[in-house]
Input
Amino acid sequence: NIECRDAVLAYDGTKPAIAAKTGKVRTRWGGKMMIHPVTGQEVPDPSDQVEILEYINPREAVWPEADYIVSNPPFLGNARMREYLGDGYAETLRKVYKDVPDTIDFVMYWWHKAANLTRIDKLQRFGLITTNSICQPRSRIIVERFLNSKQKQLEIFFAIPEHHWIEGDAAVCVSMMGVSATSSISFFRIGKQKQARSLDSNEKEVKVAFFNVKKILADLTHGVDILSAKTLNQNSKICYQGMKLCGEGFVFNFTENLELEPEFIKPFFGGRDLVSGKPERYAIDLFGLDEHDVQEKAPKIYNHILEAIKPMRLASRNINLSKYWWIYERPRPDFRKSIELLRRFIATPRTSKHRFFVFLQSNVIPESEIVVISIDDAYILGLLSSICHQKWAIIAGTNLGGNTPRYNNSLCFSSFPFPDLPEDLKQKIRELGERLDSHRKQVQANHPEITITAMYNCLEKMRSGEPFTDGDREFNNKALITTLKQIHDDLDRLTFQAYGWDDLIPLWQQTQTEPNNTEIKEQLEQSILQRLVDLNVERAQEERNGLIRWLRPDYQAPDQVTTQKVIEGVGVEEKIEETIAPPEQQKFPAKLKDQLATIRDLLRSQGGEWTVPQISAQFKNNSTKQQTAIQNCLDSLEALGIILSHIEAQTKRYFTTD
Output
């Protein structure tokens, strides 16, 4: 009973899609390149156009009846669906599955269908092999929805979060899981590779150790549920992803002599530059200028980007990319504003084997593979470099496989609860943060071949107790790893004191003397994480009561000289928030996907800050039920990092990150 057909989308046929405005067949650039007659560089060939198809009577595919499903769906990421499946198919699929966010990978349509069938008792259990991106926030939102449903909940009873799959020339890191209704779960098992290795390893056999756990979370981990942590206002408006340029012509090496206008040229840092400590590239930055300004103020740059940037931008499906072709795709205006009065800011690679934080000068252009924090205080750099934030970031972030943890600013930073401590202890941490940053930079200045990754590889070996080779000893003498270890140890000890967790110091010291005692390491990690989650709950409650412990109050809350707890009913006049309805109110969408898109577009198009009542007033039937639905959507958009919020006069206000 094998059927060979589309598993997620059914339709009656296809035809060329017609553009409503022009009446012509819709097309897109097919991907063919040509040599530019002036620059000699490859640019998109405008004559290479591919028709976009319209799918007739599209609908969800119906699966045959079954008790169990085991599947290995296609490994296709969200960003590549249009390329491999076609624009028409991708657009149709997203319209048909209205309850599924547009941000998910292709495999999540299988997960969504299987979970729905299990929830309504059409399936007993299902098991899927997927790419490990299922653990990342944009795909994980589907899993969380079914695991935390107010109706019939599902539970993951079996999981291997990371398994190297090698077949022929293909090598990919996959996740495996089994899912069932909660009433049928009797045990939970997680599998873990016995030895971490890279995808290019020659070993074919992967050994997995299994162990029982109390519960498997949506990110396929167990233990402390960091995913339950709330975004804190104290961390708002100061953490961003770096700038996304979308155009190689913006960047050039130090050695290139292009003779361009220097006032629009800035040092450029990518993730690898942070690791090496020696940037070798500049970037053209025209933010704030219109096209006429560029022609007038920077004619040489204009001539350069006219040839190097514009052809590629005009071929883009993104209207803004082609309309504002001389500006970065994501110029991060909020980040720029946040560092106007700073001489430096904190930066960390989005993806890195070791999580480290460094200071960059404020004239630097950080690219999108860098997470930036708009604070120049070494006290914060010290706390971020401590064991407490390191453990939090590994679990709260994601992993691309092959030991490559990813730092997600909306998860790793925005929900992290910083301690509230006296100034003398804060100063000690500040001095160590300065020392840490200057120590690594001084080592790299004296030995340019040394990378930060190499430093922390050696530190990791030193902490493990593994004997040093002659090469290790020579490296230690140059990179001063023993000194680096002392700085980190002092930071960890002071950070425990900052949180008031002196009782954890003996356990932490035991992990130093018994580096191979995994039980002690696990006990320390779970203790740190549980206390941080508990503190997050406490901080969130304080913020609901009006107490926000701003990290940078002069920027985050310039109108508040001091922040005090608001005592209910004492000296507080209730302020009625003005809500203005539009001339023609639209009906609030019924489907979750449409609700999310509508609220996102409202905040993006109108700008400013919005409360829940103000948003609800834009639609018909301004009821309590509608406001509850809007609040749920805002929470989801904030969790995805699409919007941010802060509290003013005891009222939560939302705004976009764009």
